[in-house]
Amino acid sequence: MKNETYATFLTLLYTLLCFSAPFSISGMEIFLSLLILSLPIFLKYSRWRTGNWDKFHTLFFTLLLFVPFLSLINSPDISVSLPWIRRHFFMIVTPVVMITAPLVGRHWKRFLWLFVAASTLAAGYAVLQVFFGETLSKPFFWKGYYVHSRAFFSQANTLGEVLTFGFLAAILSMWLTRSGRVRMIASSSALLILAGIVSTRTRTPLVVAVVAGTWIMVKLFNKRGVITVLLILILGLVANQYNDRLFWRFRQINQHPGADRVELWHYGIKAVETHPILGIGFGNFREFLKTHTDESHRFLVRYNHTHCNILEAAATTGAIGLIIFLLFWGRVGWDMYKSWRDSRDPVQKAIFLTLVTAFLVFQVEGLTECTLKDAEVALTFYVLVGVFYAFRLHTRTEACPSNLEEVSD
């Protein structure tokens, strides 16, 4: 297969991937599997050099990839652990995207717009769900908590998290264009996506999206534009504050003073104390709850993770897994921040700013959710990290075209 044919194939894959991300976990898994399976062809027909990894942290990545197997030593039920380990292995998407993305790099704006368009459509569905939940939701759950249909395979909370990435992408798209008409479309998409996040009735994604979106607008746009957008957002929220179908979950805060998450974190810490070195085993938090909760907390058994990425790493993989987890993701975050800080080109700086903000969005959300256990969100995040390293490689080799030719010849 010639490289031109493979590049066309990759372009098609990335097109389908960008469009399916907010819609279907099954679609993302299929297209990413095809991407991974096609990697040997790329390595065979290109002159890819190991130096092109650009100091990608292979050691930490490999250790983090295989840490779950160490946790099986303490696992009370390996059959429960294996599905979670499979989901953990989705992280191999990051280096695969990093290697293959440069071949379709010239289409990056198109992919960005595809992701924004798909996020806008998904957000529109979520908004309609608020008013026609019984019709659109299959099946319909109490208060429309889940946003399910044949096209949506994500729970409402994870849909809100993915739409947060779409919201940031829409703001970046708005800044990248100089056409007033296109900018109006991009800004309309951003507002509709935000409305979609509100309509999923999820607290943390909404707060994180507004804060992160405001941060990006402050950095990219003039103050007058930021103030205008914020006024629209505030007026929209105030106008809907009495709409029970939109904000019922926010009112639950006062109804549940003893939040489930606080109790889950308590038992997560207890799991760390009982198995500090290797943890209780991947995916075994529910099994731990079954044997360590009293009758007053037996209702917590319905949860299968600690609702915190860092605590989940500590509880299920112990001190060894937590250290590797922090080293790898800490270094990824540092690389993103440093690329944004050191960039001098305005476009590149804006892209790096959006990437590092999206990374922080994921990590902040991960303080109250196990986002790395939600496949819809994790897959999108792994793609984002892979895109970052591919883009950083591209920016560093612009001054040396011969290096890029080795990737795309």
Domain count, please report it: 1
Helical percentage? over 70%
- Please provide the ordered H/E string of secondary-structure elements: HHHHHHHHHHHHHHHHH
Mean pLDDT: 80
Radius of gyration, taken over Cα atoms and rounded to an integer in Å: 22 Å
For the record, give the distance between the C-alpha atoms at the N and C termini, rounded to a whole number: 13 Å
Number of helices: 17
Strand content: under 5%
Low-confidence stretches: 138-153, 252-258, 399-409
The structure class reads: mainly alpha
Largest sheet: none
What is the β-strand count? Answer: 0
Describe this structure in words.
It is a single chain. The protein contains 17 helices and no strands. By secondary structure, it is an all-alpha fold. The protein has one domain. Helix 5 packs parallel to helix 16 (375-397) and helix 6 (108-136) packs antiparallel against helix 7. The longest helix is centred in the last third of the chain and has 34 residues, at 309-342. It starts with a helix and ends with a helix. Residues 138-153, 252-258 and 399-409 have low confidence and may be disordered.
